């Protein structure tokens, strides 16, 4: 009994060991294992890897030359719950709505705890290389892409340079100027 009390007194004087959440440990592991993806860059504060800035700069497709920033929040339930992404600039995209919500199947119904942040970053890049009109958040953009591809291309170009599409002003994500074509 005396030995137990002595150990309790000794332990009371030791600093408490801070426990690391599963989410934090997994986020750190995913970020440490991250291998560079062309046209994708990430940044985060090493003391808080639960908030990540993702930048996508497609080098081909409709969105070529644009710079698209995303804020990523890793939830405390990660990896059992998918990370949350928000597109910072307002863009014209079938799978990203005007408020910046992202529609990517692996961030919703197809999320599995075995998926990594690397895979999600690559999935978001893929949305810019091959937008999907069959799973839209922006139905107008999806309709244009599916039925009027030339019109969609013109609308994307107009929006990348900070122009208007159907009365909606978009953020400039590409340098230079765009001369609107009326042939579609």
What is the tally of helical segments?
5
Strand order of the largest sheet: 1-2-3-4
User: Radius of gyration, rounded?
Assistant: 22 Å
Percentage of residues in DSSP E strands: 15-25%
Secondary-structure class:
alpha+beta
The CATH topology corresponds to Ubiquitin Conjugating Enzyme
Assembly state: single chain
Number of domains: 1
Largest sheet: 4 strands, antiparallel
**What would CATH call the homologous superfamily?**
Ubiquitin Conjugating Enzyme
Low-pLDDT stretches:
none
End-to-end Cα distance: 88 Å
Overall morphology: elongated
Number of strands: 6
Top-tier CATH class: Alpha Beta
CATH architecture: Roll
Indicate the mean pLDDT: 90
The SSE string, one letter per element, is HHEEEEHHHEE
> What level of helicity do the residues show?
25-40%
Domain UBC core: 22-165
Family: Belongs to the ubiquitin-conjugating enzyme family.
Active site: 103
Keywords: ATP-binding, Nucleotide-binding, Transferase, Ubl conjugation pathway
Describe the protein's topology.
Elements: H1 2-13, H2 22-32, E1 40-45, E2 48-56, E3 68-73, E4 84-87, H3 117-129, H4 139-147, H5 149-160, E5 164-165, E6 168-169
Antiparallel strand pairs: 1-2, 2-3, 3-4, 5-6
């Amino acid at each position: 009994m005396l030995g137990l009390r002595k150990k309790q007194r000794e332990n009371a004087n030791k600093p408490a060991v801070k426990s690391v959440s599963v989410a934090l440990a997994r986020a750190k592991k995913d970020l440490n294992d991250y291998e560079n993806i062309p046209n994708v860059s990430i940044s985060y504060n090493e003391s808080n890897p639960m908030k990540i800035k993702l930048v996508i700069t497609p080098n081909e497709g409709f969105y070529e030359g644009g710079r698209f920033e995303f804020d990523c929040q890793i939830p405390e339930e990660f990896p059992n719950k998918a990370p949350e992404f928000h597109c910072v600039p307002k863009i014209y995209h079938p799978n990203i709505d005007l408020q910046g919500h992202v529609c990517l199947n692996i961030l919703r119904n197809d999320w599995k705890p075995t998926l990594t942040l690397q895979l999600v970053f690559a999935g978001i890049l893929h949305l810019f290389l091959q937008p999907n009109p069959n799973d839209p958040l922006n139905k107008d953009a999806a309709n244009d892409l599916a039925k009027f591809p030339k019109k969609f291309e013109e609308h994307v170009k107009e929006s990348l340079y900070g122009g208007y599409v159907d009365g909606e002003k978009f953020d400039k994500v590409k340098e230079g100027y765009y001369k609107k074509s009326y042939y579609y």
